[in-house]
Sequence to fold (219 residues):
Amino acid sequence: MRVLVLLGAPGAGKGTQATILAQRLGLPHVATGDLFRNAVRAGTALGREAHGYMERGELVPDAITIEMLIERLGRPDAAEGVILDGFPRSRAQAEALESALLVRGERVEVALLVDVPAEELVGRLAGRYVCRLGGHPYHVILNPPRVPGICDVDGSPLEQREDDRPEVVRARLTRQLAPLQSVIEFYRARGILRAVDGRQPIDLVSRGLIEALDPVTTA
Ligand SMILES: [Zn+2]
Fold:
């Protein structure tokens, strides 16, 4: 089976690419958030255990997440493989995933990185504004209003949420990028990291990711 890991910082467009890759490759897109929600909803033993941690506001331990992932890999739609999105998030998780796969005679085939420089991420994430009256969303680059600072719909002034201010975004990103970097280094050391420039248009990023997989896929 093909186990593909998709890596990218918040704002890099990883989720979009995961959906596109899943379609093109015919592999299920497995995001850990969905994994938790489904297990909790289904009331499985692992789901109940995970729910307990979530209710107490604690992180679900890696061992439980890995068990859920392995269980997910055993479902019929994952027979050909999966695209993992949002996992591993740390070096410890990458190591635990490697061990769990090894027991099954499997391994991560490729770790695909949607690579976007940190300052570009700040620009993307910090460019969001909403209007005061209706909360209509805008983005200075991706979706600018016709008149700067004014809502197209109701003419009310645009303002930035506290969470979207550049200094807040930058601080949050700094915290998030360190563990991501350790995962990137983990796969780079194993010779299976493939990075694609995430500043390109969406379809070019997708093409780059597909080409970064083995020649059999692209042939
Ligand atoms: Zn508005």
The mean pLDDT is 92. The two ends are 19 Å apart (CA to CA). Residues 131, 133-134, 136, 151, 153-154, 156 surround zinc ion (CB under 6 Å).
